[in-house]
Amino acid sequence: MPARKAASSSRRGMKIRSGDQVRVISGKDRGKSGRVMRTEPRRDRVYVEGLNMIKRHTRPQQSGPSATAGQLSGVIEREGPIHISNVMLLDDKGQPTRVRIERGEGKRSRVAVRSGATID
Fold first, then answer.
1. I want to staple 80 with a disulfide (CB 3.0 to 4.6 A). Which of 16, 52, 85, 114 is the partner?
2. What is the mean pLDDT of residues 11-30?
3. 93-113, pLDDT tens digit by residue?
4. pTM of the predicted protein model
5. Three-state secondary structure readout of the chain
6. 11 phi and psi, to 5 degrees?
7. Which domains does the chain have, with CATH numbers?
8. Average pLDDT over residues 28-54
């Protein structure tokens, strides 16, 4: 079986990280913004707080010593993944911007293309 091809951005790293404010630019949640909860660089996906909500129907687990007491059952709503190409980072003024990587003094920093401000 041939080896699976790696995603294009996983070799270079993602320009959006956990905790960033982003705006969705495509899809059912277009125009909405939120905070990135977690990222999946291998799949080029991000999970944004309160966006792309999906429903999972779960059964109650059997009670016993191995079962967790706090196991939820019923319809559980949680955030689904959004492809990295469908979100844009928001700069300090709340405007969507592309991100450029600049290297200086041995450090790598993200820079907003629109305003030129350093993000971190």
1. 52
2. 89
3. 889 999 999 998 889 899 999
4. 0.78
5. CCCCCCCHHHHHCCCCCCCCEEEECCCCCCCCEEEEEEEECCCCEEEECCCCEEEEEECCCCCCCCCCCCCCCEEEEEECEEEHHHEEEECCCCCEECEEEEEECCEEEEEECCCCCECC
6. -80, -35
7. 8-61+73-95 (2.30.30.30)
8. 94
Give dist(CA 85, CA 43) in Å, integer. Answer: 12
Placement of tokens 């949680």 in the chain: 78
55 near 76, Cβ under 8 Å?
yes
CA distance 87 to 17: 12
Residue with tokens 């059952």: 73
In single-letter form, the type of residue at position 16 comes to I
